[in-house]
Amino acid sequence: MKNNNLNISKTSSYDFFLPENLIALYPANPADSAKLLIYDRKTNTITHEVFRNLGNYLENHTIILNDTKVIKARIFGYKHTGGKIELLLNKPLPDNKFLSFIRGKVKIGDILNFEDLRAKVISLNPDGSRVVEFYDSNDISIDFDQLVNILENIGHIPLPPYINREDNKQDERDYQTLFAKKDGSVAAPTASLHFTKEMLDKLNKQFGTSFITLHVGAGTFKPVECEDISEHKMHSEYYHIDNDTINIINSDKKILAVGTTVTRTIEYYYRTKKQNGECDLFLNPNNPPQRVNAILTNFHLPKSTLIMLVASFVGIEKTMELYSEAIKNHYRFYSYGDAMLIL
Fold first, then answer.
1. Contact predicate 67/179, CB 8 Å
2. Domain spans of the chain?
3. CB 31 within 8 A of CB 195
4. Which residue of 78, 216, 258, 320 is surrounded by the most CB atoms within 10 Å?
5. Dihedral sign, CA of 320, 41, 60, 272?
6. Closest Cα partner for 299 from 267, 329, 264, 269?
7. pLDDT category, 220, cuts 50, 70, 90?
C-alpha cells in the first residue's frame, strides 16, 4: 500500500480500517501458536511465522521484558443515591489518593459503595479522570497494598474496551504474563502474553532475559485527539529499572524490547539516566528510538500513540504497509491478538 499523502506529524495519517472479525476476543491457544509477522529492516523483507519460532530470527539480542502485574482494577457498586457505578482504578497518587475513571455521573464529595469498600470523590479532572480516596469496611483510609488485597476479592480483570465481552476466570490467567510480579498495571504488556514457560526457558538459555517494571495505565488506550501529534500530551506511568538491566542498557549489547512499555522505559532512561520515576516519553517518527535495536509488539489501535511508536522504528509508510499486510493475511489485532517483530 503506497500512500503519498501520509504525513508523519498528522494523526489522521495513522488511521486504518480494521474488519471487526480481526479484533481478537480471546488469545491463541497455546499462547505461542499466535502468528508472528517479521520485518527485517536491513533486507526490507517480510516473513510470516509462528510465534514459537521467534528465537530463530534473533542474533545475539538480550531480551528485556516488563514484570508488572495487572490488578483487578474494575469494580462495580452504587452511589449513595442508589444509582449504579463502575470504577476503573488507574494509578496511586500521594497521600492515599487514587486516579480513577468512573462510569456514571459523580460530583465532589460523592460516596461510592462497593463490596468491602467505599470511595469518596475528591476532585474531577478536565480529562475525565477522577481522584478518589478509598476506605475499608471500618471507614479507615487505605493505602495501595491494602486496596490491591481487597480488589483481589471483589474486582474484575480490566479487559480493554475493544474486547467487547465480560471478563471471566480464564482472563485472570490469560491477561497476565508468566513473569508478572509487581502489582500496579491496569492493562497487560500484551506482547509478553504469547510466551509459554518452555519457550521462555529456551530463550533465556540462548539469549538471556532481563526485566524492567512499568505499570501500564489506562492512558495507553487513549487515542490521539489533536491532528498535530506534537500537541499530544502523553500520559505518564511509574517505572523502575534494576541495576542488572541498567548495566545492559549502558552496554553495547543488542536489545530486543518486548513491547511498547519496555521500549519507552529503556528509551526514557537512555535520555534521562533516571532509574525510576514517571515515564511520559512519546516515541514517534519525529522522536525515534536511540537505544533499542529490535521490538516485539502486537498490532495496535488506529491513531494511537502505540502505532506511532511502531512508526518511530520504520517510518509511517512502512508501518501502514505492514499493517495492510497483516490485515490481508488475517492476523488478529490488539491485546489478545498476534505479534510483530521488527529487526
1. yes
2. 11-70+170-342, 74-154
3. yes
4. 258
5. negative
6. 329
7. confident
According to DSSP, the β-strands at 62-66 and 68-70 are unpaired
Cell readout for 51 is 510465534
C-alpha 220/C-alpha 234 separation (Å) is 9
The CA-atom distances, in angstroms, between 42 and each of 39, 283, 314 are: 9, 21, 11
Q: Is residue 65 within 8 Å of residue 260, measured between CB atoms? A: no
* Predicted confidence (pLDDT) per residue in 68-126, tens digit: 999 999 999 999 888 999 999 999 999 999 999 999 899 999 999 999 999 999 999 99
Is pTM beyond 0.85 here? yes
CATH label, 74-154, candidates 2.40.10.240, 3.40.350.10, 3.40.50.300, 3.40.50.620: 2.40.10.240
Spatial CA neighbour of 13 closest among 285, 202, 331, 313: 285
CA distance 313 to 48: 19
Judged on CB neighbours under 10 Å (0-12, 13-18, 19+), 144 is: middle
